[in-house]
Specification:
Strand order of the largest sheet: 2-1-4-3
Largest sheet: 4 strands, antiparallel
Protein name: Heme-binding protein
CATH superfamily: Haem-degrading domain
Order of helices and strands: HEEHHEEH
Number of strands: 4
Strand content: 15-25%
CATH topology: Beta-Lactamase
InterPro entries: GlcG_carb_metab_protein, PduO/GlcC-like, PduO/GlcC-like_sf
Shape: globular
Distance between the termini: 26 Å
Radius of gyration: 14 Å
Length: 144
Amino acid sequence: MHVTMEEAQKAIEAARAKAVSLDTQMCIAVVDSGGNLKAFHRMDDAWVGSIDIAQKKAKTALFFGMKTGQIGQLSQPGGPLFGIEHSNDGLITFPGGIPIVDKDGVMSGAIGVSGSTVENDHTVAEAGASAIGATELPDHPWRT
């Protein structure tokens, strides 16, 4: 199952509204369950470098079924996922990427946001994911 275009647009709009409320400019990417770009929005004056980061955050969250901030915690020196950011043509392991999981626990895509502090990136991504009813994935040993 893939995130639909309607869901992707709804997530982007909710994320954009949250970014506006935080007075920041963001790049917002939604990918489907295959990691393919489904929808993208670059706010006026958002950093060009954030285009790639937003897309990679979405893919990272999708590939591992975890929020990128969680992966970042596990990928610190000495951690069980140390060096993972060098795989899959480059991953982003700091906050701002969130899996999109439906009510049945099926991951249908992910959202990635970049353009501000990692705290704001995460908050904006959460707004987008929650706008379409995204939930957490079932427990997994790596997601603690």
